[in-house]
Amino acid sequence: MSTWSKKISSCEQKKIITFFKKNIGQSIRNKYLKFFHKQKDLTISLFTNNTLLLQGNQNAIEKFKSIFFNSYLNKTIKKSNAKFINYNEPYIGCDEVGVGDYYGPIVTCACYLEQKDSIMLEKFGVTDSKLISDNKILKLFEVLSPKIKHCVSVCDNKTYNRLHHKYKNNKIILTLLHNKTLVSLKKNINNSSAKIIMDEFTSAQIYDRYLKIINPKNYAKVDFFQTKAEKDFLAVACASIFARAIFLLEIKKMEEKITMKIPLGSSKKSEIIRLGKYLFQHGQLEEFAKLDFKPITNEITNK
Fold first, then answer.
1. Taking the chain, what is the end-to-end CA distance rounded to the nearest angstrom?
2. What is the tens place of the pLDDT at every residue in 117-130?
3. Which structural domains are found in the chain, ordered by start?
4. Which residue did the predictor score with more confidence, 299 or 21?
5. How many Å apart are CA 2 and CA 56, to the nearest integer?
6. CA 176 remoteness from chain centre
7. Are 255 and 261 in contact (CB under 8 A)?
8. Which backbone phi and psi does 132 adopt, to 5 degrees?
9. d(Cα 234, Cα 90) in Å, to the nearest integer?
10. How far, in Å, CA of 51 to CA of 58, rounded?
11. Would you state the pLDDT for residue 232?
């Protein structure tokens, strides 16, 4: 086991604690500790004398140092309504759409931002897609998608149902899609060292475990997992908008195919069931729906 320690400023302490804030609840029995976080290959201890102590695998320690003292602690907070955390270096943000919808595909998107891109996106009012109307999302996508380096993966319902039958876990499917998207994007940018930030749908350890299950030919290492990352990181917000736009365009194609409106998100359950019964009667349910939503699928198919 390796160790590394350093006296750090109150500002540095605050930023480290904020990053790991969901873990602050871990038990601290040492009265000289103000913060403690333990993961598989690294233990982080912050003492009351302002000393930061890292213990664990040397690679994990070096990664922590490179991320927090070369990158993360160099971020600046934009003094705007959006309050985005903005890197001083190019980075990648990724998000997904469609996970909670019974109908329609799952879409993952990864966006690569440089400083000039961040300035442009803020001028266009880019923010979390959940705070923007679908019409504005489509307009933003039309204007911004040619200007921002990005990659999108669309998992249609038939493919989703086949993958779910194989893996029995939709988070493994999300891992597969995100990795595919990130690998494709990294091939198209001239920056192999760009950090990757993902809106957290699972922990870093479990994400790595899912990758081992999938065993892809190539994989992209995600540097940060953060809940609601689209609220803090502009690249993730941009990815959420692009993914939502593609999702809406795919839904439009599906609606044109059956000449019916497809209920989304928080639509009334009765509307979802009514359309489902129609699709089931016409042998199209698997093509339009995520069948692992068992209570809804069972009610539609009378099981």
1. 55
2. 988 998 888 887 88
3. 2-74 (3.30.310.10), 85-253 (3.30.420.10), 264-301 (no CATH)
4. 299
5. 5
6. 13
7. yes
8. -120, 145
9. 11
10. 19
11. 82
